[in-house]
Write a structure and sequence with these properties.
The protein is α/β, with parallel strands linked by helices. Helix content is 44%, strand content 20%.
């Protein structure tokens, strides 16, 4: 049976260089899942641009001078959108992907969640936009908890060459982990290999009288996935996210599937993390 494909992907892009990496990875993911891709660009002033405008107003700059500054900021945002559109069209054409860049005026932290709810998966960067309306903790964390759908983070620290080909799944037999697995199953079905990692697995209770990872491996294999399991014991609670990150690097994983708190802490140099907002629920 052919696994169900993701039909609609959303990737959030901004004027930062990390957006071009997200575009490339999102196009690759869309090509492998036969998905339609929407790149969302919000024309929101950065904090630096807002500070320049405020300083101009307080510095008794002429009305025409302020208008010139506003036109310059608008032109800068349009130029960034044009560069992203050109890159997207080239990448999509090369992979036969149906894609569009959608430009919206407004506040990213309010607009992106609304668009994400009409997609099967939302791809974000870990870098924080510098808009004046940015939330207190981080833009990425805000999106994770308000979209209500799976969110995939792409770190900007180190370039990735693939996304979702080798997956590491953090598993502890809990309800959030089960919901997380269900949301990520489409990605797992099409991955080249998935490794289930259990931290302190001796304390898990799965109701079947056997290590929970063994049952999960069997379950994933019934879905056509290539899967195995790894158990790691005696890890201090406060070090679990770091230990998972180290294991992901050792496995060569290009995608970490982890519940929300770990997704926030655990996305590091080589890994991105897919986590539905609902994983934060008990």
């Amino acid at each position: 049976m052919k696994p169900q494909a993701l039909k609609d992907l959303l990737v959030y892009v901004d004027p930062t260089e990390g957006s071009f990496l997200r575009l490339r990875l999102a196009v690759d993911l869309a090509a492998r899942h036969e998905s339609r891709l929407t790149a969302l660009f919000v024309r929101e002033w950065s904090r630096a641009q807002s500070d320049r405008h405020k300083a101009a107003e307080l510095g008794l700059v002429s009305v025409e001078g302020i208008r010139d500054l506003e036109r310059s900021i608008k032109a800068s945002l349009q130029a960034a959108a044009d560069r992203l559109r050109t890159a997207l069209e080239s990448l999509a054409r090369g992979r036969g992907v149906s894609a569009e860049l959608r430009c919206i005026d407004g506040v990213a932290s309010a607009i992106v969640p609304q668009y994400a709810r009409y997609a099967d998966l939302c791809v974000l960067g870990r870098d924080r936009p510098e808009g004046p309306a940015s939330v207190e903790y981080t833009f990425a964390e805000h999106l994770l908890f308000v979209t209500g759908l799976p969110v995939l983070f792409v770190p900007a620290v180190e370039p990735l060459t693939s996304l979702g080909r080798r997956i590491m799944l953090a598993w502890n037999s809990s309800r959030p982990a089960a919901r997380l697995l269900n949301d990520a199953l489409t990605l797992i079905e099409r991955a080249e290999h998935t490794t289930i990692v259990m931290i302190n697995a001796s304390g898990f209770i799965d109701g079947h009288g056997a290590p929970p990872g063994e049952h999960m491996v069997q379950h994933l294999r019934r879905h056509g996935a290539v899967a195995d399991a790894v158990r790691i014991e005696n890890v201090p609670h406060g070090s679990i996210a770091d230990r998972l990150q180290a294991e992901a690097q050792a496995l060569g994983a290009d995608l970490v599937v982890a519940a929300a708190p770990l997704a926030i802490r655990g996305c590091g140099r080589r890994c991105s993390a897919a986590s539905p907002t609902t994983c934060s629920r008990g």
